[in-house]
User: What shape does this take?
Amino acid sequence: MTFSLKVYPEGPPVRDIAQLRLLERFRARLHGSFGWHSEAPVGGLGDLRAWDVRLGGSGTIGVDAETRLHDLQALQRRCETKWRDSAVDRIVLLVASTRHNRRVLAEHREALRSTFPADTTEVMAALRAGRLPSSNGIVIL
Assistant: This one.
């Protein structure tokens, strides 16, 4: 005899609403020449990883959006392996502008600098102008 149990989440039907809102704020600030591809696959068949968004234009940009920072080493490792395994020119870590996230970045920004050297001002200036940023970066919105 086997026993089967299914659990169904209760509450709002959209679990990632905060992330979707963050991505929409980001999209509203981009130059219109960028193509927007949600949940863009990273690798080939069988690779379940995806960029939250892949921007296409003068180059390709993989975007990962985080509404709450907690394990920076795991986050950095995940982004670096996705970058390695995908055909994007740059990666952008999009972070929600919350008190918690700003505090985490104020204390630990340098730990992410090797992967994400550019900050919001530099990255967004390029993206508003329709250009590929000169390096990977973190955008706080």
Remarks:
- Strands lie at 35-41, 50-56, 60-66, 90-95, 137-140.
